[in-house]
């Protein structure tokens, strides 16, 4: 399936949280595209009871998301968030050639593209959010309020990249004011250190990586963002 140029909501990752977010956004009326860097693997010979339960939950949510019209694209590595006036407006991705096979090993033939959208839901472990740093710095700079508490001794990958961007563009003082991201528990919105939301950015990862409730909140929040920007009405989600 070719990747679209535009969607209402882009979800990055299709595990439990990502599938829950995609399903909630689709049921709320959004056109949802999922970009997942995973590749289907062979089923292990033996799984623990908890692993079987997680697999069943993930599979059920994924089937429901597909049935709701969600477009899923595997082997897509998202490497940047596109920004416009401090607001998330899409993602940049890289993917192997569509013919697969041996061609996937030829880096020169890697497909690089963009998907424009109204909001993005991150369903990845925050340890892999380094590509988010430049976007958060852009949002902080556009808001005119990039202050926050002092950074931690061992910053997250996202904060490390954002601090570098701040130092390069605004100097050491601005870099020293960067702080770890927060999250709105009601909507899943990603918050800057000052408590301001990064417009158009949501997190489906709650206290636990595999949390369908956090995914649901983020997906619905992203769909609501899309509805606000387009003037459409959000469907109720049961």
From TrEMBL:
InterPro entries: FAD/NAD-bd_sf, FAD/NAD-binding_dom
Low complexity composition-biased segments: 213-223
A Pfam family per the record: Pyr_redox_2
UniProt protein name: FAD-binding protein
Sequence segments annotated as region (Disordered): 213-238
Lineage: Bacteria, Bacillati, Actinomycetota, Actinomycetes, Streptosporangiales
FAD/NAD(P)-binding domain segment(s): 8-89
